[in-house]
Specification:
heterodimer, A: mainly alpha, two-stranded antiparallel sheet, about 70% helix, B: mainly alpha, about 5% strand
């Protein structure tokens, strides 16, 4: 009964979200629309880490490496092909390949979670330095100049699939970005509900037990990591489409930190939490950018320390726990035979 | 011929600065299993302490060798009491909290001092080898690295303090029943690691660009070196710092400084794949 109710509520929420995405451009100003388009592309990035960290147990401090590679792959391909269709595909394929190589060394070397965090962080810094040093004519891929610190300006934005003549309007861009966010969310939910998704979570819970049951944790983690890299690359393409620009700061340490903060604030082990955390934090960061007194590093650092020390579970799980507790208390108050431990609604993630 | 002497000096310089940068991290990580992502900011604080005291008339040597380690050691002490002590045994949380801390420190320093600060000149002057010039400061860094190594070895191996520290790291419960308070030992170890890091920051202040975000340049190198070195503080850090420092300088000489770093990093990933326990886990098991 509760299960069905939960499923129904969630289906309803998805429909509401889809309708909201569809009618949003008519309801709000173009500036706000652009801003929430940016937030939606960032939210896709947060989903990629929410998936591999929250469900795969892989702590990647360098998800921006894949985000940035996706962005650069998109920019270079879009300039060369003058058509965003292949460019978006490349923006998914290049980071996926890169994460496959990196993941192979990490998971087949059986290095611990902590070392993986360090390695991914280092990769991001190295990529930042490499891209930063690519100014000058000799660093070009086809038509695209990498441009070093200045980045690549005037990147062609999304167009209708296989139709370079008709670029997307800001409204259509919003639909594409927010629609991608919704699809990635639903796709990950479906994956996690599938047998393979359960294996992913099993490996996170206990690697030894999962391998005794016949699953190879290395393969499972590698698959999870590659999927995370692909999603981050897609987010990179969406991000570049938003600004028509990509520069080395896409690999910056502060963005890597922001992703971690989104998830810590929103709630590790959920998919909805990181989206909420992302939008909340990016909204605050945008607010800080428009004034001079407070430094954004100061605020972000305080938020992260505060949450790790005092609300380590994050917003969404904390609210869920409180709500479950209240429900249980109400149930007992009415003298129902509800067991003290509420059946975990598997859906609320 | 001269170019090879210079290259050798560069390698020595690279390895000894890397060793100095990593030592504090290796102490904190090797003994307490805390990954301190604010390590780069401790270096930055050491450099700022040196530069600010030197610009205010303090002798440069005192600023580097006394003010920087004392100041950063004190900061480390405060941070351990206010933040780190709640996070022992929660490895991932300690990484997240120290990352937050690193952003916080960058934010505070930027707010107080702005984005740039006047540097200090490199002391000791230089000398010539054939057509090339080098600085005595390079040799001074080597001397400091050797001195630090010797000091830590002697303290850990031959003093009562070192014995208590090693015992607590091996078995906190047992040390506790024998009358040692582990909490105090952890506090002291973290402060000592911070002080050593501050010293590194002070020593690097004359030869590096000083900005609030300078820590980012060191933190990655320091981490791959400590991870590559493995659990043994001295032998592990020394071997991996020499290996990566040499690779970095030779790679930079043959290509560009940036690709020198790429070479080091690639080598580090392959090394970790081959020796997941680090160099010392394979070759110097049980050493200090």
């Amino acid at each position: 009964m509760t299960q069905r109710l939960a499923l129904f509520t969630q289906a309803l929420a998805v429909v509401v979200a889809a309708v909201a995405i569809a009618i949003a451009p008519g309801m709000i100003e173009i500036f706000t629309l652009m801003q929430i388009t940016l937030f939606a592309s960032m939210a896709v990035l947060s989903l990629s880490l929410a998936f591999i960290w929250g469900f795969g147990g892989i702590l990647s401090f360098g998800q921006t490496a894949f985000f940035g590679l996706g962005g650069y792959a998109y920019a270079v391909a879009a300039i060369n092909f003058q058509d965003s269709t292949q460019a978006i595909m490349l923006a998914v394929i290049v980071p996926a390949l890169f994460s496959a190589i990196l993941g192979y060394f990490a998971f087949y070397g059986r290095i611990s979670d902590v070392y993986l965090g360090v390695i991914t962080l280092t990769v991001t810094l190295i990529l930042f330095n490499v891209i930063n040093s690519t100014s000058g004519d000799e660093y070009r891929i086809g038509e695209a100049m990498l441009g070093g610190f200045n980045g690549i300006p005037a990147v062609p934005t999304f167009n209708m699939p296989f139709d370079p003549e008709s670029p997307l309007s800001p409204e259509q861009s919003w639909w594409a970005t927010a629609g991608t966010l919704l699809l990635v969310y639903l796709g990950l939910r479906a994956l996690l509900a599938s047998p393979f998704g359960r294996v992913i979570v099993a490996v996170r819970e206990n690697e030894v037990r999962a391998s005794l049951l016949g699953y190879d944790p290395r393969v499972v983690k590698l698959m999870t990591f590659i999927l995370g890299g692909a999603i981050a690359g897609l987010a990179g393409a969406l991000y570049v489409n938003w600004g028509a620009f990509v520069g080395p700061t896409i690999f910056s340490l502060s963005l890597s930190a922001e992703i971690i903060i989104w998830i810590t604030v929103g709630g590790l082990g959920t998919l909805l939490g990181p989206i909420i955390g992302c939008i909340l934090i990016e909204y605050i960061v945008a607010g800080i950018g428009s004034q001079q007194t407070l430094n954004s590093n100061l605020v972000l650092g305080s938020v992260l320390v505060f949450f790790v020390l005092l609300i380590p579970k994050g917003i969404v799980p904390t609210i869920r726990d409180i709500a479950t507790g209240l429900l249980a208390r109400i149930g007992r108050g009415h003298g129902d035979a509800t067991p003290a431990t509420m059946p975990q609604t598997a859906g609320v993630k | 011929m001269d170019i090879y002497v210079i290259l050798l000096l560069d390698v020595i310089n690279g390895a000894s600065s890397l060793f100095l940068i990593c030592l504090g991290l290796a102490i904190i990580f090797g003994m307490m299993k805390i990954i301190n992502l604010a390590h780069g900011e401790f270096i930055m604080l050491g450099a700022y302490a040196t530069v600010i005291s030197a610009n205010n008339g303090v002798n440069i040597w005192i600023a580097m060798l006394v003010v920087a380690p004392l100041f950063v050691g004190l900061v480390g002490l405060v941070i351990e009491r206010c933040l780190i002590r709640f996070l022992y045994g929660r490895l991932v949380d300690s990484m997240l909290a120290t990352w937050g801390l690193s952003l916080l420190i960058i934010g505070i320093v930027t707010t107080i001092f702005g984005n740039t600060i006047q540097g200090v000149p490199t002391p000791l002057g230089g000398f010539s080898i054939g057509a090339y010039r080098s600085s005595y400061y390079t040799l001074f860094l080597l001397l400091m690295a050797v001195l630090m190594m010797a000091a830590i070895y002697v303290v850990m191996r031959y003093t009562r303090l070192g014995l208590i520290a090693r015992a607590t790291m091996q078995n906190p419960g047992m040390a506790n029943t024998l009358g040692v308070n582990p909490s105090t030992v952890y506090m002291g170890t973290f402060a000592a690691g911070a002080a050593v890091t501050g010293l590194a920051g002070g020593l690097l202040a004359p030869v590096s660009g000083i900005t609030p975000v300078m820590g980012g340049a060191y933190v990655a190198k320091a981490f791959i070196t400590v991870v590559g070195g493995g659990a043994a503080i001295l032998s592990g850090t020394l071997s991996s710092a020499s290996l990566f420092g040499a690779l970095n300088q030779v790679g930079a000489y043959l290509t560009t400084p940036v690709f020198g770093e790429v070479i080091v990093f690639t080598a580090a990933i392959i090394l970790i794949r081959l020796l997941p326990q680090g160099i010392s886990g394979r070759f110097f098991k049980g050493n200090l």
